Amino acid sequence: MKIKLFFAVVAMIAGAVSLGAQEEAKDLDPQYAVNLIKEGPAPDFTIQGTDGKTYSLKDFKGKTLILDFWATWCPDCREEMPQLLALQKKLKGRKDIVMVGVSFDTDPAKLASYVKEKGIGWLQLSDFKSRKESAISDAYHIQWIPTKYVIGPDGKILLATVMQDKVDALVDSLLK
To answer: Which domains does the chain carry?
Structure first.
C-alpha cells in the first residue's frame, strides 16, 4: 500500500512539473508580439551606445543583428538573462552575428551597474527614455519587453518575437 501511495505521489509531482514546463514553453507571441514588424526592411535608427558612440542600422550591414529590447527593472528580462549570456558565449569570436541590447532604462548608472554585475558583454544602446517615449521603441512597435528582432545581413527582418527560445533556434540554424 505504501509503495502504491509513493508511486502515486511521484506521478502527481511529475505531472505537475511537466505541466509547468508546458506552461513555460507556451508561445507568447500571439498575445504580446501582434504588432511587431514581421517582414521587410528593418526600420533605421540612430541611438547612442553606452560606449559613447552613436549607432544606426547601417553600422551592422552585412551582419546578422540580434536586437534585444529590455530594461533592468523588467522581471521577464532579468529572468531570461541566463539564456542571453549563454547565447553571448555561443557567439563569442563570431563577427557575422552581433547581439545588441536596447535598454529602456532611464538611469545610466543603474544600467551600467547591472551590465557590469551580470557580465553582459554585448553592446548596449539607450536614449535613456522609457519605452513609451523612445523613438526606437516607436519605430519597432515595441509594446512589451523583452522583445527581440533578428535582422539579416541585408537589413531585412528575419524574426520578431518576445520569446528568446525562438531566437536561440534561429541562431542555431544559422550556425549550421
So the answer is: 29-175 (3.40.30.10)
pTM of the model: 0.85
Tens-place pLDDT, residues 119-175 = 999 999 999 999 999 999 999 999 999 999 999 999 999 999 999 999 999 999 999
Q: How far apart are CA 132 and CA 83, in angstroms?
A: 26
Identity of the amino acid at 31:
Q
Instruction: Find out whether 117 and 108 touch, Cβ atoms under 8 Å.
Output: no
What's the CA gap between 19 and 136, in Å, rounded?
37
Which residue shows C-alpha cell 522609457? 130
Q: Are 48 and 133 in contact (CB under 8 A)?
A: no
What is the β-pairing status of strands 64-70 and 97-103?
Answer: parallel
> For residue 74, how many C-alpha atoms fall within 13 Å in the half-sphere facing its CB?
20
Which residues, 6+ apart, have CB-to-CB distance to 55 below 8 Å?
Answer: 45, 46, 47, 48, 49, 100, 123, 125
